[in-house]
Every structure is written in structure tokens, then in C-alpha cells.
Design a protein that fits this description.
- By secondary structure, this protein is mainly α.
- It has a domain of 62 residues.
- 27% of the residues lie in helices and 0% in strands.
- The longest helix is centred in the middle third of the chain and has 24 residues.
- The termini are far apart.
Length: 121
């Protein structure tokens, strides 16, 4: 039971980190908060909070001013041009085939009807 870690011994790792460059106990995992590590440094802010807010307000005002300026300039007058109707042509990719005219049907012979005999009074 000598290998069991308790809560107190687990916190001891964070309280007394091993100095850099020294060998650690074999079989023991060295853990420390990333904030205390030499290799992991938190990036510093480029702008302070106040500068960031001022930059955002400036960008918003600049965009608003550009929108107002663009809307104030009158649009150029377009010339009135009457519509032009192009000639109606149909374009085909190939010429039309020749039209085949069917021969006219043969006339049907009418049956010969004999005139009725004259009526006699």
C-alpha cells in the first residue's frame, strides 16, 4: 500500500514542482499547471480592452459614414433609348431537308347514274 496516492500527496506535486533540469523520480509522472510552465506562455493582448472598444466604435462609425455618403450621391441619369426590335430570324444548326410533296390522290370514279325515266301524265 506504499504506492497509493492520497489527495494530500497529489497536491504536493503542484506545491513543490521539481526545478528545471533535474531528473525526476522514475515511474512518477511530473504534472504541473500549464500556467507555471516555462514552455507555455500565455499570449499578451495586442490591444487593451479600451483600445479594442475604441477601434470597434471607429470602424462602425466609418462604415456608417461611407454608407451615408454613397446614398447621398445622386445616381447618374441614364439616357432614354427607344427599344430596337431585331428582325425575327430562326437559325438552325443544319439546313432544312427538302420538302417531299406527296403525289395527289387519284380521283375516285363516280358511278354512272342513269337519269330517271320521264314522268308521263
Amino acid at each position: 500500500m506504499g504506492n497509493v496516492q492520497s489527495a494530500a500527496s497529489a497536491l504536493e506535486v503542484f506545491r513543490h514542482p521539481a526545478p528545471g533540469g533535474e531528473l525526476l523520480d522514475l515511474g512518477r509522472i511530473f504534472r504541473e499547471p500549464l500556467a507555471l510552465s516555462r514552455l507555455h506562455s500565455t499570449p499578451k493582448r495586442v490591444l487593451s480592452r479600451r483600445e479594442g472598444v475604441l477601434l470597434g466604435v471607429f470602424a462602425l462609425v466609418l462604415h456608417g459614414a461611407v454608407i451615408v455618403w454613397v446614398n447621398q450621391t445622386p445616381p447618374p441619369a441614364l439616357p432614354v433609348v427607344p427599344p430596337e426590335i431585331p428582325p425575327m430570324t430562326i437559325e438552325f444548326s443544319q439546313p432544312a431537308p427538302p420538302v417531299v410533296v406527296p403525289p395527289p390522290p387519284e380521283p375516285i370514279p363516280q358511278p354512272v347514274v342513269e337519269p330517271p325515266p320521264p314522268v308521263e301524265d
